[in-house]
C-alpha cells in the first residue's frame, strides 16, 4: 500500500509567534523591530514578501544554530496601505500611515499631475495629506510655484520651507514647526527626487544616515536608500515615526474606478455635492453639471468657490486614462 506523503510541519505551531514592526525592506528581506527595540532581518515564509514598512507582523527566530535571522509568519491586518498601480505592476509605499508629507520644491519645477495623483491615492487610502514647498530662498521660482499651488492651498495645509541654508534661530524654529506637525504620528515623506527629502530626514533624525548604513550593510545592499522605504523614530518613546520613501517618476492610479475619481478630489467633490442634473454625471460635458457651472473661466483669475481650470484638466485626463484601463 502506497504511503501518503505527510505535510511539512508548521513551525509556528510549536513556537509562540513574536510581535514585530517592519522598519525597512529590500526585495525579499525585511528588517523587523521587536517591542524592546532590537532589530532582526526576516524573510517571508512563502515565495513573495507581502510585508511592507509599517506592517505589524508575527515572526519566528531561526532555529538554534541556523543564524540570527528570522521568518515572517503573518502580516497583521492593516489600517491602510498607500500604493500606486499601473498596467504592469503594483508598488506599495508603506502601511499604517497617519499622514503623508508630499515634498515639492521651487526648483526643479514640480509636476502638478504627480502631486494630484499622490493626493488622490492618499484620499483613497484614508490618509491625511500635507504639502510642503521647499527652497523658499529662491524668490522668483518659489513665487511661481506658490501661485501654482493656489487651488491646493484651499484644500490642504501647505508649508513653505527652506531646508538648506538656514542657521541658528531660524533653522531651530523650522525644525520645531515640523516636529510639532509630526508629533505622535506616523508620517510618510513622499515626493520626486531632488526636492530635499534626504535633507529633511537628516535635519529631524540626525542618526538617520548611520541607521540607513547599518540596514544597508545588514541587507548587503548599497542601493537600499534609493529602492525601498525606511522608518525612523523621532522620539525615544517610539510614538512619532518618519518614513523615507524612494523618489518616483510615475504614479499610476489604476486601482481607482473612473466613477470614484471625483470623490477623491475635494474641490470637485464639493461642487458635485451641490447637485448635478444626472446622478451619474461625469463632470465632463453633461448639461446641468454643478462642477462645470462653477469652472474657472478661460484666462480669468480664480474666484472663491470656483474650480481651477488646471484641476479640471487633470481630472479629465485621469478620467480618460482610468476609463481606458477599466475596459480591459
Question: What is the compact description of this entry?
Answer:
The protein has 328 residues and is α/β, with parallel strands linked by helices.
Textual characterization of the structure:
The protein has 328 residues and is α/β, with parallel strands linked by helices. The protein folds into three domains: 60 residues, OB fold (Dihydrolipoamide Acetyltransferase, E2P), CATH 2.40.50; 164 residues, 3-Layer(aba) Sandwich (Rossmann fold); 69 residues, Ribonucleotide Reductase Protein R1, domain 1. It has a six-stranded mixed sheet, sandwiched between helices. A hairpin with a 4-residue loop joins strand 6 and strand 7. The radius of gyration is 23 Å and the shape is globular. About 2% of the residues have low confidence.
Low-pLDDT regions:
221-226
Distance between the termini: 51 Å
Strand order of the largest sheet: 10-9-8-11-13-12
Largest sheet: 6 strands, mixed
Strand content: 15-25%
General form: globular
Can you give the helix content as a percent range?
25-40%
Q: Work out the radius of gyration.
A: 23 Å
Number of strands: 13
**What is the top-level CATH class of the largest domain?**
Alpha Beta
How many individual helices?
A: 11
Which class do the helix and strand fractions yield? alpha/beta
Task: State the oligomer.
Answer: single chain
CATH superfamily label of the largest domain: P-loop containing nucleotide triphosphate hydrolases
- CATH T-level topology of the largest domain: Rossmann fold
| Count of domains | 3
- Mean pLDDT across every amino acid position: 89
CATH architecture of the largest domain: 3-Layer(aba) Sandwich
Q: From N to C, what is the helix and strand string?
A: HEEEEEEEEHEHHEHEHHHEEHHH
Amino acid at each position: 500500500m502506497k504511503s501518503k506523503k505527510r505535510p511539512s510541519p508548521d513551525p509556528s505551531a510549536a513556537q509562540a509567534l513574536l510581535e514585530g514592526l517592519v522598519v525597512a525592506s529590500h526585495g525579499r528581506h525585511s528588517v523587523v523591530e521587536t517591542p524592546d527595540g532590537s532589530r532582526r532581518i526576516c524573510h517571508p515564509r512563502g515565495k513573495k514578501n507581502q510585508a511592507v514598512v509599517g506592517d505589524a507582523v508575527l515572526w519566528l527566530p531561526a532555529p538554534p544554530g541556523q543564524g540570527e535571522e528570522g521568518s515572517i509568519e503573518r502580516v497583521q491586518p492593516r489600517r491602510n496601505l498607500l500604493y500606486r498601480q499601473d498596467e504592469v505592476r503594483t508598488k506599495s509605499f508603506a502601511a499604517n500611515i497617519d499622514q503623508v508629507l508630499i515634498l515639492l520644491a521651487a526648483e526643479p519645477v514640480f509636476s502638478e499631475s504627480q502631486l494630484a495623483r499622490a493626493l488622490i491615492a492618499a484620499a483613497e487610502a484614508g490618509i491625511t495629506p500635507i504639502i510642503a514647498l521647499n527652497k523658499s530662498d529662491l524668490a522668483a521660482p518659489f513665487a511661481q510655484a506658490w501661485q501654482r499651488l493656489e487651488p491646493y492651498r484651499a484644500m490642504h495645509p501647505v508649508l513653505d520651507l527652506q531646508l538648506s541654508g538656514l542657521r541658528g534661530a531660524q533653522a531651530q524654529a523650522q525644525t520645531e514647526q515640523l516636529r510639532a506637525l509630526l508629533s505622535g504620528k506616523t508620517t510618510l515623506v513622499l515626493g520626486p527626487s531632488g526636492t530635499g527629502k534626504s535633507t529633511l530626514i537628516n535635519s529631524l533624525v540626525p542618526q538617520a544616515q548611520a541607521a540607513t548604513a547599518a540596514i544597508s550593510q545588514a541587507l548587503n545592499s548599497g542601493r537600499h536608500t534609493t529602492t525601498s522605504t525606511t522608518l525612523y523614530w523621532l522620539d525615544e518613546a517610539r510614538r512619532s515615526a518618519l518614513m523615507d520613501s524612494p523618489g518616483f517618476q510615475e504614479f499610476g492610479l489604476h486601482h481607482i474606478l473612473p466613477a470614484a475619481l471625483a470623490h477623491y478630489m475635494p474641490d470637485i467633490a464639493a461642487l458635485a455635492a451641490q447637485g448635478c442634473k444626472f446622478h451619474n454625471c461625469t463632470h465632463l460635458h453633461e448639461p446641468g453639471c454643478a462642477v462645470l457651472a462653477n469652472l474657472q473661466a478661460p484666462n480669468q483669475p480664480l474666484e472663491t468657490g470656483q474650480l481651477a481650470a488646471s484641476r479640471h484638466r487633470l481630472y479629465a485626463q485621469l478620467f480618460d486614462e482610468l476609463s481606458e484601463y477599466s475596459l480591459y
